[in-house]
Specification:
Layout: H1 3-15, H2 18-25, H3 29-43, E1 48-49, E2 56-57, H4 59-87, E3 92-97, H5 99-102, H6 106-116, E4 121-126, H7 129-137, E5 143-147, E6 155-163, E7 165-170, E8 190-193, H8 201-210, E9 217-221, H9 225-233, E10 239-242, E11 253-257, E12 265-272, H10 280-292
Parallel strand pairs: 3-4, 3-5, 8-9
Antiparallel strand pairs: 1-2, 5-12, 6-12, 7-10, 7-11
Length: about 300
């Protein structure tokens, strides 16, 4: 099999029509059919079910398509980086991050990277732990900064910092830092939280609340930190976040630092182990930079 053959296969999976695919690949329909047959013979697997009026992918074909799309994307990325190295250009990296990392580690990290690699292009992608882990898996992101993430096998992790959680309340809320004892006092409150997705961040917050003997009454959920804080400021409920998340927001809020909790928010740097050698220069710079940066 060759790259052209694989690209033509992907085009056929999108059109599911040999004539349309032949027009898009600029080769004759019989030649395209032979390519696909040769591919199936080489794989010893049937990729398309041709028994119906319109061809459809088999289970093997669906799996093969997913892997080949990823591989072709990686080949394109490697080719581009090879050209950049040949030309003496610095290239680019992509960093995925949770919103709290933008309020703590990301800005000073970008300044440090700029000092060392002035021609390096750094793109940012913000999202939840699950979203960033998926982008790391598909190589759409090179590094991730994730809070309290449950990291699957195959990833390198480095703790960047730990920080206390804060209870966040509307400015006129009855609770205040002088009289507050613990989260038991929030048993009857309305809560505004991020969605659960099974990757650690919100699960840890719910675990903390549950340890005080109750399930929080969640009235609103939003994946956007700014939206959560604005709803709290409007008096719609209370929430709980890491200390650094609050940086940069000037809202009508009251905060209580939860100093006596057993748990803290743990921010991690994450990358795939099988890409460590490829990203070693940038990984080293990031590690050195985060050691120099003050803990938020």
């Amino acid at each position: 099999m060759n790259i052209e053959q694989l690209k033509n296969f992907v085009i056929l999976t999108r059109t599911l029509n040999f004539r349309s695919a032949a027009e898009k690949t600029y080769i004759a329909q019989p030649a395209l059919s032979r390519q696909i047959q040769n591919l199936e013979e080489e794989l010893n697997a049937v990729l398309f079910d041709r028994s119906k009026r319109q061809i459809v992918l088999t289970d093997a074909g669906i799996y093969f398509k997913g892997e080949i799309v990823r591989i072709l994307r990686d080949i394109e990325k490697v080719s581009e980086k090879t050209k950049q190295i040949h030309k003496g250009e610095a290239g680019s990296i992509s960093i995925g991050h949770a919103s709290s990392a933008m309020h703590s580690i990301i800005p000073p990290l970008l300044l440090e990277i700029k000092k060392r690699y002035p021609n390096l292009s750094v793109s940012l992608l913000e999202g939840s732990n699950g979203f960033i882990l998926e982008k790391l898996k598909t190589n759409e992101v090179d590094f991730g900064f994730l809070p309290n993430a449950l990291i699957p096998e195959g990833y390198e992790t480095v703790e960047v910092y730990r920080e206390n959680y804060f209870l966040i309340l509307p400015q006129n809320h009855r609770l205040n830092r002088n009289t507050f004892t613990n989260l038991t006092e929030c048993r009857d409150e309305d809560w505004i939280l991020h969605p659960q997705e099974g990757y650690g961040y919100m699960e840890r917050i719910l675990q903390i609340i549950n340890e005080f003997g109750y399930q929080p009454r969640i009235v609103h959920r939003s994946p956007n930190t700014s939206s959560v804080l604005r709803m709290v400021a409007a008096g719609l409920g209370i929430t709980m976040m890491g200390k650094s998340t609050l940086k940069g927001f000037k809202l009508n809020l009251k905060t209580i630092e939860l100093k006596n909790l057993e748990h803290q928010l743990d921010m991690k740097l994450v990358l795939r182990k099988d890409r460590k050698a490829e990203l070693d220069n940038y990984y080293t710079v990031i590690l050195e930079s985060i050691k120099q940066l003050a803990t938020p």
